[in-house]
Write a structure and sequence with these properties.
alpha+beta, 174 residues, single chain, 5 helices, globular, 3-stranded antiparallel sheet, 5-stranded mixed sheet
């Protein structure tokens, strides 16, 4: 669902048409990292070599498991509840991560990730819908930045999401 949202946006009328090549994270080569624009869509746990790049200058880090994200500035721990056994019909929290930063040769990295499914879906929707994207743009003053979203999930559906914070990469300010 998340890839559909992003690909639909990339192919929208008025956008410059570019060749899009979809590859698995396990097939991403160092040459692709150097020469291509990269949009990662998936779990934080599946980022492989992109994880180091995405969190290198981040105020966030991955905790003891991929279900935990830690704000290094505040010490706040964000733990996904999506992996816990729940009674059907109860809501839970999940967390989405977005980051955008330049690559080594002027290319661009865009990371749309989450601790679990509903976070990936909600983060992709937030970045492909007008009003959440406008909210993010208002809160961001840098070319390289990150954002953390809290997502309410029910069963395997994302109900809603809210931007917890955005920050310039390499910055400790909100």
């Amino acid at each position: 669902f998340a890839m559909r949202d992003v690909l639909t946006t990339l192919a929208a009328p008025g956008q410059p048409q570019q060749r899009v090549q979809v590859v698995l994270a396990s097939e991403l080569t160092s040459d692709m990292l150097r020469t291509s624009h990269v949009i990662y869509i998936g779990y934080i746990s599946g980022m492989r070599q992109l994880q180091e790049l995405a969190f290198q200058h981040s105020r966030l880090s991955v905790g003891a498991s991929f279900d935990e994200i830690i704000d290094k500035r505040t010490g706040q721990r964000y733990v996904s509840q999506a992996g816990e056994l729940r009674e059907a019909g109860t809501t839970y929290r999940d967390y989405g991560f977005f980051s955008s930063f330049p690559g080594p040769t002027g290319n661009r990295f865009v990371i749309i990730a989450g601790t679990r499914d509903v976070a990936v879906m909600e983060t992709a929707q937030a970045l492909t819908r007008a009003w959440p994207l406008a909210e993010l743009a208002r809160s961001t003053q840098s070319e390289s930045f990150e954002a953390l979203y809290e997502v309410a999930g029910l069963n395997r559906s994302n109900l809603s999401g809210r931007l917890l914070f955005s920050a310039a990469l390499g910055s400790n300010r909100s």
